[in-house]
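Consider the tokenized backbone below.
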């Protein structure tokens, strides 16, 4: 077992990097891959950079160069469901693109043609273990399971948010998860997306996001560390 752990931003991988035994650092595609050990497990921790292309490239490198057997994406997200509060954690049931639209030719909303999936399903066992890990490390944090909707946009308006909810019924919006999911799916590697809510993806997002980003990212990293030990 070798687990690739991807965060888009430094704040999302900082805690993991400082709590791992680093054996080597490999630079590729402007990314630094930290290979080493967390909780007795072989891991590669990497900051992919923001948005879908970076995320997809990152997974392919993890598969090709590091032979990872599992992929975890950790980070923050905007909520799409009014029952979620800032600080709650979302575990992906599946992930889809909210900014892909080839419906004019009969494809489903979000569908990339000729792939065979619209919503990329996350690994159930990883999700169950993540749920148990949160109960252990942070029993007070709300945990929800649902769809992660990804696109190359920071969602900060009610209209855009409502459209995503109407089209995809998601639980949170972010900018990498579905690309990580697609790349994992294409390579037959199980994945899980773990996101802490940093904002409500509406008109309040630009105020809330900077305030809650660091804490949300840190909580997520603590959960990922526990999950790695459990896998
Ligand atoms: N990451 C955190 N909050 C987000 C939002 N509102 N939209 C996209 N990505 C996010």
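A designed sequence for it:
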């Amino acid at each position: 077992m070798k687990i690739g752990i991807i965060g888009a931003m430094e704040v999302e991988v900082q805690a993991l990097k400082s709590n791992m035994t680093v054996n080597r650092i490999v630079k590729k595609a402007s990314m630094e891959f930290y290979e080493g050990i967390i909780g007795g497990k072989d891991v590669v921790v990497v900051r992919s950079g923001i948005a879908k292309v970076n995320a997809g490239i990152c997974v392919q490198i993890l598969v090709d160069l590091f032979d990872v057997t599992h992929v975890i994406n950790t980070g923050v997200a905007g909520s799409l469901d009014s029952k979620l509060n800032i600080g709650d954690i979302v575990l992906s049931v599946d992930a889809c693109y909210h900014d892909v639209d080839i419906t004019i030719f009969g494809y489903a909303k979000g569908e990339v043609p000729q792939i065979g999936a619209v919503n990329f399903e996350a690994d159930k066992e990883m999700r169950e273990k993540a749920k148990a890990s949160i109960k252990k490390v942070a029993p007070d944090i709300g945990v929800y399971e649902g769809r992660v909707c990804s696109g190359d946009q920071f969602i900060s308006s009610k209209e855009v948010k409502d459209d995503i909810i109407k089209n995809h019924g998601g639980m949170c919006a972010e900018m990498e998860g579905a690309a990580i999911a697609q790349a994992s799916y294409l390579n037959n590697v199980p994945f899980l997306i773990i996101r802490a809510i940093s904002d409500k993806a509406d008109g309040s997002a630009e105020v809330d996001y900077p305030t809650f980003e660091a804490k949300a990212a840190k909580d997520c990293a603590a959960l990922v560390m526990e999950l790695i030990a459990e896998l």
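Strands lie at 2-7, 21-28, 31-38, 41-47, 70-79, 89-97, 120-121, 143-150, 172-174, 191-199.
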